[in-house]
Inverse folding.
């Protein structure tokens, strides 16, 4: 079954880390992408680049930024092929954001 691993990061998670520590974290993400169960994924630009669209009473409202009332921001995602939820959870736990104060939402994809 395919799952989306939705990565939520703390915006300040990388502050104070040395260049070597940042490189080590990037290497972990690269290693994850080489796992045969990874079907794809992308890292998003910073939250400041987001634009949010809402429709109220038939009128489109566009605002800058995500304006999510949360301490975490949506930073990227992976699409994986896993045998079951436990396998998807194991992959999610390997994502560095999970130990840097962030979280990963694991959600099965609708199979068409």
């Amino acid at each position: 079954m395919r799952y989306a691993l939705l990565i939520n990061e703390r915006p300040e998670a990388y502050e104070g880390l040395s260049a070597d520590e940042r490189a080590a974290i990037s290497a972990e993400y690269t290693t994850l992408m080489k796992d045969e169960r990874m079907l794809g994924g992308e890292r998003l630009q910073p939250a400041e680049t987001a634009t949010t669209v809402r429709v109220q009473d038939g009128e489109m409202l566009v605002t800058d930024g995500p304006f999510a009332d949360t301490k975490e921001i949506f930073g990227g995602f992976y699409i994986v092929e896993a045998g079951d939820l436990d396998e998807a959870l194991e992959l999610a736990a390997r994502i560095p954001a999970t130990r840097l104060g962030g979280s990963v939402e694991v959600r099965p994809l609708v199979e068409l």
Observations:
- The longest strand covers residues 73-81.
- The helical segments are 19-34, 85-93.
- The longest helix spans residues 19-34.
- The mean pLDDT is 90.
